[in-house]
Amino acid sequence: MKLKRKNQLVLFDIDGTILIYKKYFSKKVFISIIKKVFQKDILTSQLPGFAGMTDLQILKDIAVIIDIPENELNDLIPESWKILLTEFQKISNPDCIELLPGISELIGLLHNDEYTHLGLLTGNFKDNAYLKLSVFDLDKYFPFGAFGCESDNRNLLPELAILRANNYIDGKQFSAANSVIIGDSPKDIECAKSNIIPVIAVATGLYSEKQLADYSPDAVFTNFSDFEKVYNTIISF
Question: Which of 6, 56, 91, 147 is a Cys-bridge partner for 126, taking CB atoms 3.0 to 4.6 Å apart?
Answer without folding.
Answer: 147
